[in-house]
Amino acid sequence: MKKKLMVLGASLLLGGVTSAQKVTFEEYDLDNGLHVILHQDSSAPVVITSVMYHVGSKDENPDRTGFAHFFEHLLFEGTENIKRGEWFKIVTANGGVNNANTSDDRTYYYEVFPSNNLELGLWMESERLLHPIINQIGVDTQNEVVKEEKRTRYDNRPYGNIFTVVKEKMFEVHPYRWTTIGSMKDLDAATLDEFKAFNKKFYIPNNAVLVVAGDFEKSQAKEWIKKYFGIIPKGEKITKKTYLEKPITETIKATYEDPNIQLPMLVTAYRTPSMKTRDARVLDLISAYLSNGKSSKLYKKIVDQEKKALQIGAFGYNQEDYSMYILYGIPMGTTTSAELLKEIDEEIVKIQTDLISETDYQKLQNKFDNNYVNANSSIEGIAENLASFYLLYGDVNLINTEIEMIHSITREEIREVAKKYLNPNQRLVLDYVPAKAKSQN
């Protein structure tokens, strides 16, 4: 009876989540190839204008890394009609906020304004696309900004270079092998013409999606979109390169010394398939089962019960071409990294051998229902999800149907996917340790 009630409760919860959270949208293309997505929501008098470009660090030349992230900063420098230093002032003066972010696969810009400033937001994003000013003053200014960001987030931050090392070891030929922030040496060596060429190639309407979400009148929005974006010339077609990595068949062992830490960290990483695959979603469930929160299997066993680690965690780093599944832990007391790895492997073997319990399975479903609701709880979240599902997944309606896919994943699939990807001969084992003190003679 209890099991029947659990199943009934789960079905009711799913029905409630999918109906209450359905995101409606309209999409169409301009003649220049710009894809447009409109989502109306009058619950609050705000509107977001956002543009996502299909360019990230994987589109860079190996000797010019960091360009995509650099442009995240550079394209706030100004345009022919927005003077240098005025972008943020205009946004703030009109009651708005804005930001941008870059990944290996895409670059995203957005403004959130009171709904009566939709035209302003559209004009500003069209200006970024049509009339950017790329000059030496802007390049030099943002070069210093990026250098400071690298020092703060990577070089001087405890455990700040873990991801740098993991990517270098996990990929041999794919551009995922370098970090999004790139190399300062490469940015210093780049010429102004190289920056201009990068902009001309990738920041074009047929390599982007525009999302307008929030409180607006649709016919008026379409008029303004045509007015400001329709005049932008279509760019040359971009041909994306395909990079194939050989399967990892032996454990990759590495050590990295970090002068900013006092405690060692064990890191293991597995190369996994594209985030567009069903297996990637199964791995997300596995990650949550193992280490999402203090009730997860690894935390309860290794941190709470056995006191062998100060911290333990796992997460999927999902990307367009390949993904990674990363586990990490800080050994406690006399526990060694090897002993900690043995404890982690025991839990992975359990997933590979036995079905997780019905109770744990239902907890996972509830957790992902909650994640789904939170992801679509704000206009900002909906706008970015609409852009991402179109540009990276090729299916905007995944914003509504992905949760159904999660619910269709079985306990048997969880076991089989763990057996397929999470084996010792398919991973990197990184000992991330404090730097040894240099002897003074």
TrEMBL record:
Biological process, per Gene Ontology: proteolysis
Peptidase M16 N-terminal domain residues: 36-176
Top-level taxon of origin: Bacteria
Limits of the Peptidase M16 C-terminal domain: 190-367
One Gene Ontology molecular-function label: metal ion binding
Keywords from the UniProt entry: Hydrolase, Metalloprotease, Protease, Signal, Zinc
The UniProt record lists the keyword Repressor: no
InterPro entries, per database record: Metalloenz_LuxS/M16, Pept_M16_N, Peptidase_M16, Peptidase_M16_C
Keyword hit for DNA repair: no
Signal peptide positions on this chain: 1-22
Pfam families the record matches: Peptidase_M16, Peptidase_M16_C
Family of this protein: Belongs to the peptidase M16 family.
Protein name as catalogued: Insulinase family protein
Natural source organism: Flavobacterium agrisoli
